[in-house]
Every structure is written in C-alpha cells, then in structure tokens.
Fold this sequence. Notes:
Blueprint: H1 23-35, H2 37-50, H3 55-114, H4 124-141, E1 145-152, H5 155-162, H6 164-181, E2 187-190, E3 195-201, H7 205-220, E4 228-235, H8 243-259, E5 265-266
Amino acid sequence: MATRRRRKSDLDEPRPFWRTIPHYYAYPALGAFLGLGSPVGAFAMRYWLADPILKTLWVRHELQYNFLFYAYMGIGTVAAFLVFGYWLGLRSERQRVSNRILNARLDELHLKSVTDSLTGAFTHGYLHEILELEIQHSLTHKTPLSILMLDIDDFKKINDSHGHLFGDRVIKETAETISASIRSEDILGRYGGDEFLVIMPGADAETANQAANRICQGIAGNGYNATVSIGTTTFDGNGEQDGKALLEEADANMYQAKREGKNQVSAGR
Length: 269
C-alpha cells in the first residue's frame, strides 16, 4: 500500500560490497595479513640492530641462514591468526545477523504501532505528527501542502443494514481505493471510525482537487453502495499556519460537501 512509510533503518541503506562479505571470511583474511607482519617485523628489527654497511650482502646472508626461522614464524603466526580470525568472525557474523533481525523486528513493531490494523493506514495520533512535520517542511521550502478530509456517507445506515463485518469491508475497500488514487508520496491515515485524512506534500489546490475527484469516482464505482464526501484545503507555504487550523478548514469543507448533496468534493468558498 502506498501509504506506509517505514522508519529509516540500516535495511534501507545500500551497503558497500565489502560490508556484505561474511565476517567468517573477512576476519581470517585480515588475520592472515596481520600474521605476515610477524616475520616482516622481525626481519626489519634485525636489520635495524645490525645496521650493516653492505646492505645487499647482509640481506642475502640473513635470508640464506635464517630462512627457516622466518618461514616458521610466518606460517605459525598466519595459521594462528587465521584460526582466531575464523572463530572471531563466526561470533561477529552471528551477532551481525542477530542485529539485522532485531532491526527488522523493531521496524515491524514501529509500523504496527502507527498503523491501523484494519486498513494499514496511519493512526490518528501519528497523522498529527506527520502533518506538523510537513507544515514545517512547507514553510522552510515555500512549497504548497494540501490535505483531504474524507467521510463515508451514511455509514451508520450501511452498518445497520448490512452488519459490522460488511461495514469493516467497506472501510477497508475505501482505504484501498484512496490509496490507489493518490500519489506514492502522499500519506493516508484513518482519522476516525469512517473518516480518512490524506496529507499531500507539494500538492497545490488543483492537484488536491483532481485526487479528491478520482477518489470520489473510484469509491462510487466500487459496487458496494458507498460514497464519500471530501473537503480539501491547501497551504501555500507562506505566512503562519498550524495543523489544527488546516484540519478544521478541511473538516468544515467536508461538511459543506455533505450539505450540498454528498458524494462530492468541496474546497470551500
């Protein structure tokens, strides 16, 4: 559904290829590289202590007489670091996988905490948080912000005539129709029992009106004898504005649409 927005997590970010290498491969490789430092370091220290005059001759004799010493040191330290790196990598990889599973679980729990279980739309409380953030974005960037307030017409009659299970189906299909009629960046929430709110960042009045009319036509044509009344309002990004005033204006416009015959859109006067 286009209405869901996950919190940002490490699962959403592209990772460099080297971070995708399992730790039980990466750590032994790093260990082997570090293990090679032992014979190299021993050779460099002996060279520094000897401080030879004929450097090339010293190097040739050193490698000739102490080759087994350096080979033993290199093989031993590389093998030790490989084993230790593999053991450490296994533990680290298990922890990394565990952390990613935990992050995914936290992401899932976050979604559940801010979305309605029936429709998958955002909850009333979370909508207010999003609206305030979008108003601040609109003020900062001087871009328009529109909202749609929707209410299912005569929903009580639908419930009384067909039962609550049918009423739940109407609410769910209404949410799906709204979601299919708005842009991917728009935010849909269940504002009340049979009320919905759509927050449309960057949308001017014409864009909001077009979306509202698509929703009206889509719901009226769904075949379950339900319609909606929609009130729209737009903030142009200039001056002072708060979420409460925008919601009150959209709500008033929605009731105006109901007074004028329902199954229509009103942007006020």
